[in-house]
């Protein structure tokens, strides 16, 4: 199946003679080598595919190149090298007019500090993208109200932005993005300015909305816990490069290098992992026959611990057809929660050689 969005060997270099800089980076130069000439390699050789309905998170520290990458995805920035394909169409091959049309109808952006128009009602703010598209007033108000309701703002349509809290204003931003019915949402640190509780609330709301809306979302964050909660897959960026792409479980259990390993040290594993990620897939078989409680592949880690505490033998993991697909011995739970990657999972890599952190 064709992915909704595809980045192919994207480079973005700011400064003098960018093409030359790309050549140097291709030959192995890194950011620091270029910096001396006043040139910044903001994004280096980034490739990934985002499927329809997927939340793809780009995670990295400040300056790692996340926003630059995102701006290339909707054609606001032209790549120095490489291509962006949206539904198979190369963005750089589009005319300005085609690109503007694509951006106004198919792609929406939500920023960290969402700038609402202060002299427009909440409804007119949410309807802004539709107004730009020339949608008649009655229809755009109906669609704006629907989007506001989805974002938990029913009843606030006529309010002014300054009557809303920061979290509510951010919801208006999200409603504006949803109102246009764009297929692709690009979210740049959209929740980062919010208080922790409100932020979590917004994450929940996005996940809830996503169950029915099935948008394709690229979500930028510097917060690994947020990345793990939201991302179907996560790309970790460092100094312009994507150093690992994978599911939250891949990244937690099989960090690609010491950099990623040091990043995940503080992640609450118990909130991310499920039975499928930690089970031993070569069970003996007798654990499932005792008539005891069992787990499913998607049983959360915390529940698994509670279950394990009630049983005297490993927890059996059964699939939807009640077939035994794995077992979880208690020591595996302890190993995963500790600083170890869990022996079986660490051995999956590199033909059994454990290459964990330094
Ligand atoms: N227009 C520009 N001109 C020159 N350099 C730029 C420009 N935009 C970004 N950069 C540089 O490119 C690098 C990546 O910046 P970018 O904004 O993409 O990082 P980021 O990961 O989004 O960071 P943050 O988390 O702080 O938002 C930085 O070194 C930045 O200074
Ligand atoms: Mg940024």
TrEMBL record:
Record-annotated ABC transporter domain positions: 5-264
Tagged with keyword Transport: yes
Gene Ontology molecular functions: ATP binding; ATP hydrolysis activity
Keyword hit for Nucleotide-binding: yes
Key words, A-Z: ATP-binding, CBS domain, Nucleotide-binding, Transport
Signal sequence residues: none
GO biological process: glycine betaine transport; response to osmotic stress
Coiled-coil ranges from the UniProt annotation: none
GO CC terms, sorted: membrane
Entry-linked Pfam families: ABC_tran
PROSITE patterns: ABC_TRANSPORTER_1, ABC_TRANSPORTER_2
Recorded family membership: Belongs to the ABC transporter superfamily.
PANTHER family: GLYCINE BETAINE/PROLINE BETAINE TRANSPORT SYSTEM ATP-BINDING PROTEIN PROV, GLYCINE BETAINE_PROLINE BETAINE TRANSPORT SYSTEM ATP-BINDING PROTEIN PROV
Protein name (record): Glycine/betaine ABC transporter ATP-binding protein
Native organism: Streptomyces lucensis JCM 4490
């Amino acid at each position: 199946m064709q992915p909704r969005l595809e980045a192919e060997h994207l480079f973005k270099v700011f400064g003098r003679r960018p093409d030359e800089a790309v050549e140097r980076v291709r030959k192995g130069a890194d950011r620091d080598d270029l910096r001396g000439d006043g040139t910044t390699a903001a994004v280096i050789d980034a490739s990934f595919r985002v499927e329809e309905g997927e939340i793809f998170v780009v995670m990295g520290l400040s300056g790692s190149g996340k926003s630059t990458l995102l701006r290339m995805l909707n054609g606001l920035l032209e790549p120095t090298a490489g291509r962006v394909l949206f539904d198979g169409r190369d963005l750089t091959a589009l005319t300005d007019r085609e690109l503007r049309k694509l951006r106004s109808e198919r792609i929406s952006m939500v920023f960290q500090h969402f700038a609402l128009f202060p002299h427009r009602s909440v409804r007119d703010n949410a309807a802004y993208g539709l107004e730009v598209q020339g949608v008649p007033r009655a229809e755009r108000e109906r669609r704006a109200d629907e989007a506001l309701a989805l974002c938990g703002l029913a009843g606030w349509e006529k309010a002014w932005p300054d009557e809303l809290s920061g979290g509510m204003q951010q919801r208006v931003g999200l409603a504006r993005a949803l109102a246009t019915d764009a297929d692709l949402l690009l979210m740049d640190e959209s929740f980062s300015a919010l208080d922790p509780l409100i932020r979590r609330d917004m994450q929940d709301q996005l996940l809830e909305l996503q169950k029915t809306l099935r948008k394709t979302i690229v979500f930028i964050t510097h917060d690994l816990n947020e990345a793990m909660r939201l991302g179907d897959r996560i790309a970790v960026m460092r100094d312009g490069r994507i150093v690992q792409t994978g599911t939250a479980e891949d990244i937690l259990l099989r960090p690609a290098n010491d950099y990623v390993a040091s990043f995940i040290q503080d992640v609450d594993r118990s909130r991310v992992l499920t039975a499928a990620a930690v089970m031993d897939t070569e069970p003996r078989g007798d654990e499932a026959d005792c008539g005891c409680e069992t787990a499913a592949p998607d049983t959360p880690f915390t529940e698994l611990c509670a279950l394990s505490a009630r049983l005297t033998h490993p927890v059996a993991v059964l699939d939807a057809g009640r077939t035994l697909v794995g077992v979880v011995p208690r020591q595996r739970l302890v190993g995963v929660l500790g600083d170890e990657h869990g022996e079986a999972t660490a051995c999956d890599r590199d033909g059994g050689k454990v290459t964990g952190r330094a």
